[in-house]
Amino acid sequence: AQEALLHSQKLEAVGQLVSGMAHDFNNVLAAIVGAFDLVRRRPDEPERVRRYAEAGLEAAERGAKLTAQLLAFARAQRIQLTPLIVCDIIRPLHNLLARTLGPMIRLDFALNPHPVPVLADATQVEMMVLNLAINARDAMPNGGTLTVSTTVRNISGHPEVDDGEYVEIAVGDTGAGMDETTLRRAMEPFFTTKPIGKGTGLGLAQIYGSARQAGGTVHIDSTLGQGTTVRVLMPCTDEEPNDPVQAVTPVDIAGT
Ligand code: ADP
């Protein structure tokens, strides 16, 4: 628990730092984009110069994407826990996930229809699944299968979380797997084995931080050369999920 606290404090500090830097960096990028765009549009500049400007613009846009990711990470440090049915959040992601994974990767959904609400942040659950799917895709360059499943589990005597019922979101792949060091360090902020510009090393750290904030945790099972399954545990709640349909004042159809 001490270690988890340290982790979340570290994550919060990193979040603040990152958000400040990302904002400043965005201003710099906006200036760069503006300048390159100007050159690119000048018909009196030689073709070669306009091509350089084009390349500069593309690089700046990649930079902007990265800062957007960093800002999303910093924002994720502020969350709102509400009772929700995890399957209802994950099910609509199917098409987006299928598109993200591409034609080489099979996508299997095994969502437990048992509607047990958990206390979680809907946007964070979406982010978790999406980030895990992207990691899985990166681990399966030659294709494979991604399985997204949800299960209700009873946990007791766990070193990190209270005894009780949890919904487990498991995202499994048939990809490269992790070596021992990677498995041990995967959830550390900024730990990445990916090249600069591709990985930030914040994905799993963020997922772990979110799960801990919700009173849950994350487990990773991985075998080198066989694949990886990341399991996110979220505590169940007795609270009823807000039904957006019922939240609307009922309309009297008969008009009486
Ligand atoms: P990033 O993806 O930006 O590197 P993460 O925190 O999401 O950051 O992941 C950290 C590292 O853990 C990755 O660089 C990779 O080495 C390893 N990893 C994460 N997910 C998987 C996976 N599904 N299969 C194999 N390795 C993974």
Automatic annotation (TrEMBL):
Domain Histidine kinase, chain residue ranges per copy: 20-238
Domain of life per record: Bacteria
Stated name of the protein: histidine kinase
Full-protein positions shown: 436 to 691 of 811
